[in-house]
Amino acid sequence: MDSTTDLVKSISITNLANQRVAVVERVREALDLLGEAERLARAAHLGFPRLVLDDSYGCRGRPTITGEYAKRDEAEAAIVGVIDTRGWSYLLSESGLRTFMDAHAREQWNKQLAEGDVPELTAVNIEATFAQLYGTRGDMFERGVLQCFRRLSWDYKTNQPFKFGKRIIVRRLLTQGSTNHRVTDELDDLIRVFCVLDGKPEPDHRHGAYCLVSDARQARSAEAEIAYFHLRWFKNGNGHVTFKRPDLVGKMNLILAKHHPNALASETR
Questions:
Q1: Rounded-to-integer distance, Cα 95 and Cα 109, Å
Q2: Looking at residue 2, what is its pLDDT?
Q3: Are residues 111 and 154 in the same domain?
Q4: Which residues have a Cβ under 8 Å from the Cβ of 113 and sit 6 or more positions away?
Q5: Where are the beta strands (DSSP E) in the chain?
Q6: Do 96 and 123 belong together in one domain?
């Protein structure tokens, strides 16, 4: 427990799991009382309202359940599903755990949360999930470099097909006048790798490339800058990323060479 607590300093996992147990217990008691009230009303030939359980605000993957509380198990499962989904969403956001994820991992988790496909929110499951993500953070940030490299457009001379050069051009940084989350997630992957290679703490995703671009645009600027690169965007929605640390770019190219050992050598063919 201690190692996981170190990863989530701002949240007490034990307290959150205990609160979840208390909430679920009360939900079960409430459903039992509603079921009992319905049976008593029917036996006495009294009316009883048609109750509707609408959890559509929680996650789209779980259907809305309507009707009387005869299907108690379904009602309980739906309510507990919303409780757990919201709990995982809170954990991932407030703990900073998403900081360890590359764009692919974040996309997977977003899909699971949207569909309510999450494990039971217990201390054991939280510990196991956090430990697994933390343990694979090295692989994830390397995967982030590879994903960004592979998704670059080779239609431009500044994008070198076998390595990162001084500058890259990212397509669709802006789409329909809005900042593109997918592209800024990829830039976050790049920033994360720069930080790790530079021996700096991994940045918090909540203050990443999306905020960088959005804040600059709100200030009516078409460019932004951090310690590792200068970013400028144009009316066609594309962005130019100019690297400021050639030493770290060299280290990134070593990551590419590790996964594609013949790629850099092929440039001279």
A1: 15
A2: 44
A3: no
A4: 59, 85, 88, 89, 92
A5: 52-53, 65-66, 167-170, 174-175, 178-179, 223-225, 229-233, 239-243
A6: yes
Percentage of residues in the chain with pLDDT exceeding 70?
Answer: 80
> Are 30 and 147 in a shared domain?
no
From 135, 165, 184, the end of a domain falls on: 135
Cα 172 to Cα 175, 179, 232, 238: the distances in Å are 6, 9, 12, 5
Check: CB of residue 104 under 8 Å from CB of residue 189: no
Residues 236 and 162 in one domain: yes
Range of the domain at 159: 138-268
Q: Are 13 and 108 part of one and the same domain? A: yes
Which residue in the block uniquely carries the two structure tokens 């800024």?
184
Q: Which pLDDT tens digit goes with each residue over 46-80?
A: 998 877 766 554 444 454 444 444 477 888 888 89
Instruction: DSSP letter for 6, please.
Output: H
Q: Are residues 26 and 93 in the same domain?
A: yes
The string of pLDDT tens digits covering residues 220-251 is 999 999 999 999 999 999 999 999 999 999 99
Same domain, 201 and 145: yes
- Our count of domains for the chain comes to 2
Of 4-8, 10-14, 174-178, 246-250, the range with the lowest mean pLDDT is 4-8
Residue 157 has pLDDT above 90, yes or no: no
56, two tokens: 């559509």
Q: What is the pLDDT, as a whole number, of residue 119?
A: 93
Nearest to 239 by CA among 177, 189, 175, 173: 173
Q: Which of 96, 118, 135 is the last residue of a domain?
A: 135
